[in-house]
Amino acid sequence: MLQTADVGILGERAARQFLRRLGYRILARNHRSSAGEIDLIAMDGDVVVFAEVKTRTSRSGADPEANIAAGQIGRISRAAQRFLLSSGAGDWPARLDVLTVMLAPDGPPKVEHFKSAFPLGGRR
Length: 124
Known about the structure:
Blueprint: H1 4-21, E1 25-33, E2 36-44, E3 47-57, H2 70-86, E4 94-103, E5 110-118
Parallel strand pairs: 3-4
Antiparallel strand pairs: 1-2, 2-3, 4-5
């Protein structure tokens, strides 16, 4: 049985591979600031994408995206704004995506991608 940390690591790896296959360029993973943590930061063309990854095993039954609380969205949004400002990209287009990963014991992970899942500090 997978430990919670292992589930998260496997899910983030599957999400990174999924985005790379779509042509995204991964800039950072598990980016931490005083405002919070961002699972993945990537470029989709000229758009900076801040991605929250939610992973579950097929046995858990809960939809991964159901576990994103309003407070967590606010922390991710603030961390994203700080990243943009500190990297000189404050005026670049950006969005907050959610990737859900379902791990199955007998098959490849299933990844779903929700673009612009939540507002990013007033941006759209």
